[in-house]
Amino acid sequence: MMQPKIYTLLAILLLCMSCEDKPKDQAQILENDFAIDYEKFTLDNGLEVILHQDTSDPIVAVATIMHVGSNREKPGKTGFAHFFEHMSFNDSENVPVGANRKMIPEWGGSRNGGTSNDYTVYYEVVPKDAFEKILWIDSDRFGYMINTVTESALEREKQVVKNEKRQRVDNAAYGYTDEIIRSNLYPEGHPYNWTVIGSLPDLQAATIEDVKEFYNQFYGASNATLVIAGDIDFDETKSLVKKWFGEIPSGPKVEALQPQPVTLTETKSLYFEDNFAKLPELRMVFPSVEEYHKDSYALQILGQLLSGSKNAPLYQVVVEEQKLAPNIGTYQSNSELTGEFKFRVRANAQIDLDLVKKAIDSGLTRFEENGVNDRDLKRIKAELETGLYQGVSTVLSKAFQLGQDNEFGGDPSYITKTAKLTEAVTADDVMRVYNQYIKNKNYVMTSVVPKGQLDLAVENAKEATVWIEEVKQNVASEEVGQGEEADYEKTVSKYDRSEPAFGELPKFKMPTIWTGNLENGLSIYGIENNETPLVQFDITIPGGQLLDPTNKAGVANFLSDLMMEGTANKTPAELEEAIGLLGASIYMYSTNEDFHISGSCLAKNFEETIALVKEIILEPRWDESEFARLKQGLETGLKDRESNPNAIASIAYSRLLYGQNHPFAIPGSGTLETVKDISMADLKAYYTNLVPKNANFHIAGAMSKSQTLGVLENLNAWKGEAPQLPEFKLPLEVKKNTVYFIDVPDSKQSVFNIGKLALSAKNEEAENLYFANEILGGGSSGRLFQTLRIEKGYTYGAYSSIGNSLEVSPFTVSSSVRANATLKSLEIIKDMVSNYADDFTEEDVALTKNKLLKASTRAYESLGAKLGILRNISKYGYSNDFIEQNQAELIAMTLEDYKTIINSYLQEPDMIYVIVGDKASQWGEVKKLGKPVVELDIFGNPM
Q1: How far are the Cα atoms of 418, 430, 457, 765 from residue 584, in angstroms, in the given order?
Q2: What does the pLDDT read at residue 481?
Q3: Domains, the chain, ranges and CATH?
Q4: Per the confidence metrics, is the pTM higher than 0.85?
Q5: Is the pLDDT of residue 4 over 50?
Q6: Which of 300, 324, 326, 813 is the most exposed place for a label (fewest CB within 10 A)?
Q7: What single string gives the DSSP state of each residue in 541-591?
C-alpha cells in the first residue's frame, strides 16, 4: 500500500501518563505535561527500539519503519520500494507461506504496510496474547524472507501491484496528475521525479536479483526503527526483542540523503484530457522546504490562512464571490528531501480554468494587501491544540509518531519541538515565507479536463504526456499462481524460531455505560474515558433520508450543510471562527435513517461548544446566498461522482435492490435530477423534523455523567414532537440471477457489486449472519481475498459484508479486478458463494470464534468506536452488554447453525451482479457466465 507522510501538523504532540495514575487524574496530566513517556535502546546490530506503555486496552501495536522509500530508487527501477513492501509479506523462513496476511487477522489482529517517498512502514495491532507471535512473524519478515523469494511469487506480486495502480491511478479521475507534476517539478534523476508506485514497465522488468540487491542494500537492522506501544512490560519486551530481532544482520551503512530543494527557471503549464474526469481541475505546485525545516511550520499555517476558512482570501474570491468552485485547498506537503506548497481547485462543470487562475491571483493580491489576521492565527493554533490530543487516540498512532520522529528527526519526542515551533509562528513569519516561496515564484500548473473539453484548460498550456497501459485481452498471458516453495537452507539461529504459544487470553469487557434524560425528551448515553482531555459527541435524530420529500432526495443532506452556514446572530464566517477559537469541531450529516449533529472538543470547552450547538439548532440563518452557493457545490459534487466507477456501481446496485419506490434506491445526497428543484422552503419544512423527542445524545470522553447532564440542561430550550416516520415497502420481486453491465470505455479494471437483500440489524439472526460472513470475505484472511489476490493476482482486494440498518440491508461481495480477469473472477465468486455452506467446516467454526472474540479487544479503543457502541444501543435497542451477549452467542454457534444461516440468506441464484467496466472488451466475456445480461447507463437506467 502506498502511503503519504503519517505525521501531520494536526498530530502535534504525543502525551503520555504513568499507568499508575488514577483515571480521574489522567486528563489533567495530559493537559499540563507535554512529555513523551518512552524508553529507547539500540541492539548490537544497530536496530533502534522504542517502547511505550499504554495499559488502557489489552492490545499491542508494532511498527517497523525502514528508512527507504522511492527516493532511493534509480531511473529504470522506479516503484521498487513499494513493490518490495508487497514482496515482504509473501513468505519467510520460519513462518508458513502466506501466514502474514492470513494468520494475523485470525489472531484477532490487523496488519498492513505503506510506502512513501522516504520510508516503508510495516505495522500490526494485536490482542495482548499474540504479542510474542507478532514479534516472531514481524522479525521473520524483516530478517528471514529473502531466501524464500521465488519466481512465481515475484510474478504474482507484480500482478497485484499492477492492479493497485490500475485501481488508484489508471481507473480513477485525476489519477495521472501526480505523475505529471512530479516529472515536471523535479529534474530527471531527482529522487522525487517519479511517483511512489512507479512505472509498470519498470515493475514488469523486475527480477529476483533486483529484489535481493534491494534487500541487501536497504533492509539491514541499522536502517530501521522498531516501535512497540501498548499493554507491555518493558523488561519482558526488551528480552523478547533481543531474542527475535537481535540476530538480524546490521546491513551496510546507508548514507543519509541531504535535502535536495529544487528551483524552477520557468513556470510550466500543462494540460491533460482525463478519460474519467467530469470536472476541470487546476493545480499549482511551488517548490518549498523539507520536513523539520524551520519554515515548514509557517508554511503549514499559511495554507490554512489562504483557504482554510470563510475569512480566507482565496475562499472568498474563488468560492463565495466568483462562484467558480465549491472549495479550494492550499497546503504544505513535507518530505525528507524537499517540500511542495500546493493549490488545488476542482471547479464547477464547464468552468474555464483561466478564470480560476485569475481568481487565485486576485485572492493572493488580497492576502498581500490585508496581511495576517491575528484572530485567524489564534483560531488555527486553537484547532491545532485539539489536534495535538487527537494524536494520542490509539496505540498505533503513537507508534507511528514515535518511530518516524526518531528515524527522520533523530528524536522520538521531536513532536514536542514541533508543538513549540508551531506555537511560536508569528504573522511576520507567515508573510516572510509567503514572499520567499510563493510570491512571484515559478511553479508547475496542471489543467486536467474531461475528455473533449480542451477549451477549459488554461490558455497556452502544453500537452502533458503519460504512459498509459494497454490491457491485453488474453488473461492467460498474465495468469499466476502459488507456485512451488523456494529451495533454501535455513539461516542458523541460536534460538528456536518456531511459532511461540499464545499468552494469556485477554478478555473484552464492555465499558461502563451511563444513561440519562432531559425534560425535552432527549435521551443521553455516555461512556466516561479519561485517557485524553477530549470528548466526542453525537446527536442522532431519527429520519434522515426517509423524511425527504417525494422526488427530492437530498433535502436532509442539503439541510445538514446549510445549517452550518451561520446562525441568526452569526455570519457563516463568525460561526466558523467561534468554533475554531474553541479548538472544536461541529458538523452535521444525514444518513439513510438518521440526521446527525456531531462534534469533538477539549473537555474544558465542552460547555461553550454545546452552547454553539444549541444556537445552530435553534437559530438557523436561512441565508439565501449560502443556499445558492451550496446548491451549486452540491451539483458540482454530484457531477464529479459520475467519474467514479465504484460510485457508479454502488448507485446502480442500490437502485436494483430497493426498486424505484424506496428512498434507499437513491443516494442520500440525491442526484442531479432530484436536487434541481430543491428550494429553501423544502429545507425549512424538513427542519421541523429536527426535534429532541426520540432523539439520542451520545458522548464519550473525559466527562462524568453529572458534568455532562449539567451542561446539557442548556438544551432543554430545544423542544418539539417527533414526526411519524414513513414506512416503505421493499420490491416484491427483484430480477435476480442477472448481470447488469455499465460501460465506462477504456476501463483498466472491472468493478463488481454482487449480492442481495439479507436482513435488518434488528433481526435476531443479524449477528449470526455477520459471523457467518467472516470466513468468506472478512478482510485479508477471507477466502475471496486469499483466492482472487493471493492465489490469482486478479485484484488488489476482494471482500464481502452485510449492511447495518433498521431496514433490510444487503449482503454484498465487492472487488475491482483487472479487466482481462473479469470472467475468471466472476466464475470464482459464483462458485465460492454457491458452495459456501457445503464447504464450511468445523475448522471454520473454531477460526471464526477465535478471530472475532480476539478482535473485540482492539475494536473499541478509540472514542469514535465507543460512540459507535452507544449509537447501536440507542438505535437498535441493544442491551448495555450487547457485545458480551453477542460473544456468548458466537461461542455457542455450531457448524449446523452456520450452514443453516448461510443457506437462509446467501443463496447465489438470488443475487444480482453489477459490473462497471469496458464493454468493448468485456461484454462478450461476461455473457459466458451463463446469466442474462442487461446493459445500464451510468445512472442505472436500462439502455
Answers
A1: 21, 23, 39, 40
A2: 62
A3: 39-256 (3.30.830.10), 268-463 (3.30.830.10), 516-717 (3.30.830.10), 738-936 (3.30.830.10)
A4: yes
A5: no
A6: 326
A7: EE-GGGGSPTT-TTHHHHHHHHTTS-BTTB-HHHHHHHHHHTT-EEEEEE-
